[in-house]
Amino acid sequence: MIAIERLSRVYGSEVAVDDVSMFVKAGALTVIVGASGAGKSTLMRMVNRLVEPTSGRVLIEGEDAALLPVHELRRRIGYVIQNHGLFPHRTVAQNIATVPTLLGWDRRRIAARVEELLHLFQLDPATFAQRHPQELSGGQQQRVGVARALAAEPRLLLMDEPFGALDPLVRGKAQDDLKTIQRQLSTTILFVTHDMEEAIRLGDRIAVMDGGKLIQYAPPAEILVHPATPFVGALIGVGDRPFRLLSLETVAREVEPGEAEGPAVAADADLRNVFAELLWSRRAAAPVAERDGRVIGRVTLARLIERAGTPT
Amino acid sequence: MLNTLNAIQTIPSIALFGILIGPLGWVANHVPGAAALGVHGIGAAPAMLALFLYSLLPMAANTVVGLDQAPRDVVDAADGMGMTRRQRLFSVELPLALPIILTAVRIVLVQNIGMATIAALIGGGGFGVFVFAGLGQTAPDLILLGALPTVFLAFAAAIVLDAAVELASGARS
Fold first, then answer.
1. Cβ of A71 and B96 within 8 Å?
2. Chain B: residue whose CA lies nearest to A71
3. Top-level CATH class of B2-170?
């Protein structure tokens, strides 16, 4: 849980972050979105005090961040950046072990934790532990970066455009993995991006920033349906709105009893993908199947069209 | 500070050996115990001091460059994970700068092996003694007796340190 209270940061005559207050619930994935220069990175960096606030304060689990020794504070908070920032002279295992080593964990505990994390991120320890970061692909480097940030089991994870440098395919996978891992560990995540698509896909709540100010702070569906200002509307992109709204829900909730022709869609697929599938295969309905192949009903085009508009 | 070192580097080596005779002679005469420690106006002391001064610039300059070239992301990550400045220096910036610092060691070593022959002129001894004796008597075999081992030493030092630089940077590629 993070409480940001009237936080500002001024550089000379320029106000980077302007009187921002927000409350981040424990276990939630909160995305801060905005154009470059909107102050979103600065806001995040004030949480682990890589930037010191000009005024206002940050409470983490009720504790004022400014009162803790800065190194202790940072060791308790995971931190992931865009170009992963892995140490090139250290192996993958050593990189992941960074914070536990700083905290003085004993060697066996560190080794066990490193192995656990490599498994969690689908990196085979036998293959990857002793490699250097340069020998990995971009997606693997990013996974090691996230694993390193999670090594000391932080309750809070800060991610500054962590997937910005990945190609779209790897990026989508990284986003799905992050969602899964976040649900598993119920870590509180503060995630900065300039990409509204990514924000909607990941966020439990989205904070939209512009010119250092917090413009709107709401769940994705509310941002899509009721953008607070024309700027937020522009970020969403009016043309994409129905599809983004669809992308928030999975098929499971729209299943109705009945039969349908053609190949089944997965129950955990999002509605946008199913909509696209129905349009593409020129079907009015498709069977819905669970992971194990059991058909649980059907989803109709009419139902999806109904769901894609503004709620009345 | 680098400017001072730059200035030292421009003094011709023979001149620097000469310049040091004065102050070191004074120290030897006026500081009790200095002479007993081997500090004299001529001999090995000024030679060592001059070689040391010449090695300062390449060493300092390369160390600065080396520490500076640690990637920004890496430094940011080190800070963000809660390393103290000292931990960051010793476990991140210095290891990353090591190849560049070792390159400076190589330059300095080869340069000093050559320059040490000149120390013979101020009684510093070394292979230079043969070279200058040979020059005085126009005896090429004497000159070679001094020059060849010098060249050999310089080569050997260069090869060993090249290997060290390779090793230091090879660890992460």
1. no
2. B82
3. mainly alpha
Instruction: Give the minimum alpha-carbon distance from A26 to chain B in angstroms, rounded to a whole number.
Output: 21
A7: three-class secondary structure by DSSP:
strand
From A267, A274, A272, A271, select the one nearest A252 (Cα to Cα): A267
Class of domain A244-308: alpha beta
Q: Which strand ranges, in their side-by-side order, compose the sheet holding A295-300?
A: A265-266, A285-289, A295-300
For B41-61, what is each residue's pLDDT tens digit? 777 778 888 888 888 888 998
Compare all CA atoms of chain A with the CA of B94 and give the residue at the minimum distance.
A89
For residue B96, what pLDDT is reported? 92
Structure confidence by residue, pLDDT tens digits, A86-109: 999 999 999 999 999 999 999 999
Residues A87, B74: C-beta atoms closer than 8 Å: yes
pLDDT surpassing 80 at residue A297:
yes
Q: Which CATH number fits domain A2-236: 3.40.50.10190, 3.40.50.300, 3.90.640.10, 3.90.79.10?
A: 3.40.50.300
**A11's tokens:** 């550089």
Question: How crowded is residue A39: how many other Cβ atoms within 10 Å of its Cβ?
Answer: 25
A73–B77 C-beta distance less than 8 A: no
- Residue B52 tokens read as 């040391």
The whole-number pLDDT of residue A109 equals 95
Residues of B in contact with A76 (CB under 8 A): 82
Positive or negative torsion for Cα B115, B119, B125, B128: positive
Cβ distance of B87 and A89 shorter than 8 Å: no
CA–CA gap between residue B76 and residue A84 (Å, rounded): 10
pLDDT for A218-232, tens place per residue?
999 899 889 999 999
What is the model's pLDDT at position A252?
85
Q: How many residues does chain A have?
A: 312
Rg of chain A's alpha carbons, rounded to an integer? 21
Which chain B residues have a beta carbon less than 8 Å from that of A79? 77, 80-81
Q: In which residue are the tokens 């990637």 written?
A: B71
- Option in B79, B82, B172 nearest A88 (CB): B172
For B80, the closest of A74, A89, A134 (CB atoms) is A74
Q: What whole-number distance in Å separates Cα of residue A155 and Cα of residue A25?
A: 12
